[in-house]
Sequence to fold (265 residues):
Amino acid sequence: MASTYLYGYDTPPKRATASELDTKRTWSKLHPEMRRRLLALFDASREAGHEVGLGGGWRTDAIQLATFLARHNEVSTDGCCTYNGKRYALKPGMAPAAPPGNSYHESTTDDDEALAADLIGDLVWMNANCWRFGLIHFAQVNKEPWHVQPTELPRSRSKYTGQQLAVWPLPTPPAPVPVPTPPPGPAPTTEAKMLTIVGNEDNHADPRRWVWDGGTSMRYLTSEADYKRLVDLAAVGLCKLHPAFSTLAAPFWMTTAERSTYGQP
Fold:
């Protein structure tokens, strides 16, 4: 029997097979690599007993506008954002939503595919594990623990310039338990984390670099020797360096504000 996944915002949520999800535009208009990463995340969450599924993915411009207006009020001054020449302020208790044309939930790539999804289910487990699947959550950015997008893209849609998604090295699924159970062997090794080298988006001439685990942990690289130690650990399989952001010369750029969410200057 085909696996089914949590889907939608009904209570309780509906369930859908991968083939059934493919008939839903909110899913089928996500970038294929994004869908691949999400399905692997969904499968792993179910196996771990912390099931996660899809709330929504791609949105039309009209739905994005409705979402934005439902969460913001028009104001004469101040506010948080501008749309059609007018200022808007976030309604109390609401999570931010980007104006139309500024969300990864909308058609973003040259093929009109979206690059963001809102998930449902065990979001605590998802926030702790999504980095393993090449996804970053926004629990510490816009207080949106349900929102995920590819790790390697700029956080803001306004900074997206057509960057391509690489095929992310997904975690290896656990092997089936053999029958009969063999004698106990060595303790399983902990899966190596995928680490990203980070630079200062606000000043590309800044020589400082940080290392980020794609989740909630970031630390400052104190020297080239500190970086060389990471390279040595990756060489023996004790960690993984992101294939696109693994050098001091070509880091993943993050703003000061983004780094501050991880306790870094």
Summary: Residues 137 and 224 are 30 Å apart (CA to CA). The two ends are 51 Å apart (CA to CA).
